[in-house]
Amino acid sequence: MSILVVGSVAFDALQTPFGKIDRCLGGSATYFSVAASYFTEVELVAVVGEDFTDEDARIFEGRKINLDSLQRVAGAKTFFWSGEYGYDLNVAKTRDTQLNVFADFKPQLNDRQRHPDVLFLANIDPDLQYEVLQQTERPRLVALDTMNYWISSKRDSLERIFGAVDLIIINEAEVRQFTKEANLVKACRQILDLGAQTLVVKRGEYGVLMITKDAIFAAPAYPLENVFDPTGAGDTFAGGVLGYLASRAEVHDRELRRAIIFGSVLASFTVEKFSLDRLREISLRDIHERYQDFRALTHFDDFGAD
Amino acid sequence: MSILVVGSVAFDALQTPFGKIDRCLGGSATYFSVAASYFTEVELVAVVGEDFTDEDARIFEGRKINLDSLQRVAGAKTFFWSGEYGYDLNVAKTRDTQLNVFADFKPQLNDRQRHPDVLFLANIDPDLQYEVLQQTERPRLVALDTMNYWISSKRDSLERIFGAVDLIIINEAEVRQFTKEANLVKACRQILDLGAQTLVVKRGEYGVLMITKDAIFAAPAYPLENVFDPTGAGDTFAGGVLGYLASRAEVHDRELRRAIIFGSVLASFTVEKFSLDRLREISLRDIHERYQDFRALTHFDDFGAD
């Protein structure tokens, strides 16, 4: 089982109330790949500039991440994002975005890549997401992430790709923005009516709500006393969810619930340090222990049990 | 096992996007008592005016609610609140508050009431809460609710009563307002340091977080497609929590978790109709069925289970 991810590899400059860093690794596909690689083989399709060094590429080393399609463009610079967080850490304020090599990113899958088991379309232009999907023989599972920018600028394209995938990962505010419906459950059902089987709604510090045609699952976020840098939490979450699902034979309700907890576990590690500093150092044992912590956090028994 | 509640019985005028009502029953102690009475005997200490009719009092009939100390003041009017909600339903806009008989409310417990098993101090002046507590022989369990108004106007009094009770029920925004700490877990620990054993944080549509010295428990809210009127949800929740706890021999982690789910179940019914219209018509069977729905909503299994 393996997963193909198309998205961004980037450099970030970050400022949080707890520190400041001028250049660190970032990008949706970076967080996603490292997270997913704890569970499955990952093939990364992305583009970087010549400022992306072998030292930078070490983040992917020693993991099951295939970099054959991490394209390096000579004479150009890597996608750069600069952001700032206040004390509540829920909203990033973008200070600067330089698309650089990412502006002309037109992923071309090779023959091998046209048959992925699982495909994840990270947050890029929904027209590009659709083009990538069209290049594949229909994978077993196709999922995507998106952002508010595409809802306001490319609504029709988003509607098309929403109807063409199996699983949508999206922020709560984006669900309401897309549907103009205040009630979250109703809004989710409207999106599911476009065609996907599963909607996974990210609610930041409040956790995740998963809605399918038959069931609803609510998972809290891990209540951390020290959140250092929320950058990449959503991409890490997606990596955990899809990585786990790619490692399993079937995608049904029970596996989806476990996947959401694994995604939440990984995201809870990511925010403990800057960039991927914490995510890259954890072990499977750490992941499994925190999965058990989530069980303790949410467990209540049947009232008829005594 | 029984519970003594001191709080308000009121008339409300409500406007939501789904309807409008000029006069209906409300008040923290009203919602609390009806909710708690599904589990235990309730003794209600409150005051109303002569406009509170026998027809109004029917809400308490046929339930295990003792009204001996529901004082009716001749020539005076019942506490009145008028509020309005927009489509997001999370924030009530107060249009009018008339304290009326509630302005001079000085609860005096009789001999029998001085020995309650469980005492709930609904959202009233923290000095009044303290005076009521002083009138009792230390009950097995003392809990309170409060509001942002007392945090800004009577901070010292609130600090005193926080240190004198076992269980505090409070909104998330109020935790941050009281502590001036953005991280919720840290903020909760600061409040627990004042003396209480258990802090139950209400997060509206995001559910509840319970923090004790030894454990954290997160419960989602029930994802309703139709929320009609959120008035009284918090008081109903408190009634379910304390009513269930009053019915049990011990207050430990397992019972607290069940209590929070029962509180969430009852609150999810309250918001389905105006005022107490839905809460008053449900059966224990309805409550138990929705408890099971909460289990289905939150359940995920151990990943080692297959």
List the topology elements.
2 copies of one chain form a homodimer.
Chain A (H helix, E strand, L loop, with lengths): L1 E5 L3 E7 L2 E8 L1 H9 L4 E9 L4 H4 L7 E2 L3 E4 L5 E7 L6 E7 L19 E4 L4 H10 L5 E5 L2 H6 L1 H8 L4 E5 H8 L4 H9 L5 E5 L5 E5 L3 E4 L13 H14 L6 H18 L13 H15 L8
Parallel strand pairs in A: 1-4, 1-9, 2-7, 4-5, 4-6, 9-10, 10-11, 11-12
Antiparallel strand pairs in A: 2-3, 7-8, 12-13, 13-14
Largest interface pair: A-B, 45 and 44 residues
CATH architecture of chain A, by name, is: 3-Layer(aba) Sandwich
**Low-confidence blocks of residues of chain A:** none
- Judging from the principal axes of the Cα atoms, what is the shape of chain A? globular
Q: Major β-sheet of chain A, in short?
A: 10 strands, mixed
Tell how many strands the DSSP assignment of chain A holds: 14
* CATH topology (fold) name of chain A: UDP-N-acetylmuramoyl-L-alanine:D-glutamate ligase
Computed CA radius of gyration of chain A, to the nearest angstrom: 18 Å
Question: Secondary-structure element sequence of chain A?
Answer: EEEHEHEEEEEHEHHEHHEEEHHH
Distance between the termini of chain A: 44 Å
Description:
The structure is a homodimer of 306-residue chains. The first copy, chain A, has 306 residues and is of the alpha/beta class. Chain A has a single domain (2-300), classed as Ribokinase (UDP-N-acetylmuramoyl-L-alanine:D-glutamate ligase, 3-Layer(aba) Sandwich). Chain A contains 10 helices and 14 strands. The first copy, chain A, has helices spanning 28-36, 54-57, 126-135, 148-153, 155-162, 172-179, 184-192, 233-246, 253-270, 284-298, and strands at 2-6, 10-16, 19-26, 41-49, 65-66, 70-73, 79-85, 92-98, 118-121, 141-145, 167-171, 198-202, 208-212, 216-219. In chain A, the strands form 2 sheets. In chain A, strands 1, 4, 5, 6, 9, 10, 11, 12, 13 and 14 form a 10-stranded mixed beta sheet that branches. In chain A, strands 3-2-7-8 form a 4-stranded mixed beta sheet. In chain A, helix 2 links the parallel strand 4 and strand 5 (65-66). In chain A, helix 3 (126-135) runs parallel beside helix 5 and helix 9 (253-270) crosses helix 10. The longest helix of chain A has 18 residues, at 253-270. Chain A starts with a strand and ends in an 8-residue tail after the last helix. The mean pLDDT of chain A is 95. The A-B interface holds A 87-89, 182-186, 189, 203, 205-207, 209, 211, 215-220, 223-227, 254, 257-258, 260-262, 288, 291-292, 294-303 and B 87-89, 182-186, 189, 203, 205-207, 209, 215-220, 223-227, 254, 257-258, 260-262, 288, 291-292, 294-303.
